[in-house]
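Notebook B, p. 112. Complex prediction, attempt 2.
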Amino acid sequence: MSKPIEHDYIGLSVQQLLSMESSDSNNKKNGLHLKATELRLGLPGSESPQSEDHDHNVLSLKSFVSGAKRVFSDALDGGGKWVFSGGSGGGSEGLFSPRSGGNNGGNGLSGSDSGLGSLVLKDGAATKPVLVQEKKPQVAGGSGHGTGNIAPASKAQVVGWPPIRSFRKNTMASHPPKDDDDAEAKLGAGCLYVKVSMDGAPYLRKVDLKIYGSYKELYSALEKMFSCFTIGQCGSHGVSSRDGLSESRLIDLLHGSEYVLTYEDKDGDWMLVGDVPWQIFTDSCKRLRIMKSSEAIGLAPRAIEKCKNRS
Amino acid sequence: MQKKMAYSFPDEVLEHVFSFIQSDKDRNAVSMVCKSWYDIERWCRRKIFVGNCYAVNPRIVIRRFPEVRSIELKGKPHFADFNLVPDGWGGYVFPWILEMARAYPWLEEIRLKRMVVTDESLELIAKSFKNFKVLVLFSCEGFSTDGLAAIAASCKNLRELDLRDSEVDDLSGHWLSHFPETYTSLVSLNISCLGSDEVSFSALERLVGRCPNLRTLLLNRAVPLDKIANILRRAPQLVEFGTGTYTAELRPDVFSYLAGAFSSCKELRSLSGFWEAVPAYIPAIYSVCSRLTSLNLSFATIQNPDLIKLVSLCPSLQRLLVLDYIEDSGLEALASSCKDLQELRVFPSDPFGVEPNVSLTEQGLVAISWGCPKLESVLYFCRQMSNAALVTIAQNRPNLTRFRLCIIDPKTVDYLTHEPLDVGFGAIVEHCKDLRRLSLSGLLTDRVFDYIGTYAKKLEMLSVAFAGDSDLGLHHVLSGCESLRKLEIRDCPFGDKALLANAAKLETMRSLWMSSCSVSFGACKLLGQKMPRLNVEVIDERGHPDSRPESCPVDKLYIYRSVAGPRVDMPPFVWTKDEDSSLRLS
């Protein structure tokens, strides 16, 4: 297993990632994707039973921008294919692998490199969570931007409408009124604000988990929210949006900060995001934290134990 | 001769006279009479209200009023309640606490609304004010139970601790144990917002037991039903009580113990809490119902007929908060049994559902308007409305002072005529001449704003969403509403023209919020340049507005008058005029 020059989870250097991206044969891409999507959580130096040539471990959030994203983005389909859904069960191998998800080779590369979210994959055998880069879909600005490209279960929810205070919304959401009607339909609605903190950021944000349907959507939104901390003040570099970032800036960030997305569950334990099906995640997530990878070292084993205990 | 008398009139006498004048408005008027009255008044003003913490800064306040004992500050704009203000926008109280710690060692009361309060701020309060008595944190955030522990431990004279609707990092229930055993002065405790499942019951019971002046106690959800009775028995003098989670398996012994505890509280006038209430235990409160003046069932999941039965037992009710489970039939019952009703708030049980889940329509509100002659404050969520109903309500209840109607689907038409609801709301402003607060909903054209500008002369706060056709709508309001202080608008096609034409009006108001409208960045810049006493804040998370054409509409706009100049604590997504073009008062 090669030790990277930069200290990142995958064990790949930035140069390696960038060179992978420039390969253009579909096969090779798919092959890479397969390996990529079988990446498991990287504690630097840890072994992964299924690794072949690279011991790729997790490619962390990397401040949401990375030149390497294009490598993996192809593998990730839109919609729910990359997400644990209740029905797909927990044990099947390669739940998030491109084999089950289709192999749209081209779609990830199109569009601007406006940054990344990340997605957690699960390897069936080792049940270790994995973070993979994916391309963030463009989210429209303007009114209703809070909902962007999200299609929630009941009807399109406009941010802040109806005008019900967070205190009331959160109270009703976490304990929905019992009804003769289909209680589950009501559980799908409502809203659930959780705090998101990021190591080094001056203040918290809050996100409504109910408006996202998948991990991918959550990551997109988080990256949009926190990008101005990682890039620096939005105005001060004279850069208007991430679209305008130069590649050199991306590389600078890769060197610097490495983050993983974690959450505190109902038991008070901190877990890596992506272990569990999305629905279970939203029901048990109390708060989110984008923490430095170096601090996330203790998380993986507990995550595994919890999964085992649960199943 | 008269001049001589003026100079010889002792200051102490004037001060004594002024001490009977409590209202801020009157105090301000007094201070404008002449220089000597200004000076006398400023030395004896004890209570300050700052409606927008950025309108002024602590040093200015302290310089003018050196002997303040009580301060109230408000931070974020109202729409922050609905998550329209991004986190990190501002509203930090710490700079105020820091200055006041030095200048007002005898400060007794701090009341904050929509501000960011850190544990550090709470610790500083605990340490700095020896005679601290009242802390009210209304819809605040940023602190944890650690900060509360500091307050509990140090504030020996604390009377009131009210955390209503705040977001608290509830790390542990043990903060309550930090009230020393010698501490007995608690009068009011509201911890209903604390979220964790932990509460130290024994500490709570002991605290309640040793504070004979306790009048208000609002518990949080962690307190189960079977603990209530013991608490009530230790505090039969309570006037205002909020239960915790009000659900349990029905057990006769628990029920009768609880019912007995309630009935021993002869002073009880107000009840709230009732999270997850089960009908079986509702009768436990029947003995106090006839005396209740305020009842908050807005978190109670009980439905009719239990709900109707309950409200029918409360003839003295002045204030009712309830979910739409009450339905039209319940409101009709309310209208016939509660003739003293002054305030009604009906919240939606399923606001995001596509279909109505309950039978609550405009009829319920109409029934109330017929039956409750003292009704003056309404907050009503429903799914259908008609102009006819609104006209009836307006004609029945010209004494309305606060009318907030939320028809859940934006741009809903009059369900009978399919017309906009302009005429209905027009009737409200025309008949209710003392209307101070109005929130609109449904399909509305510029016409409704014409009515509002024409009739709503006492209107102080207006909330508008998904309404209007053009700038004319905004112009009607800004040019017509003489008493307007706060205007908040979202998703309306109002742009530059009305705003710039009424720029001077903005200095007479506390604040204007506009989000998802059509105000261009160019107009914002112009306004900022032309009006030095206004802070024009452009809130836009899409990046610097200079990266888009000047004609591009800004995402969110918050304009407020200020003597403090642009603030220094803005986050990266807020832009305002350059510091050079502003007056910076230290």
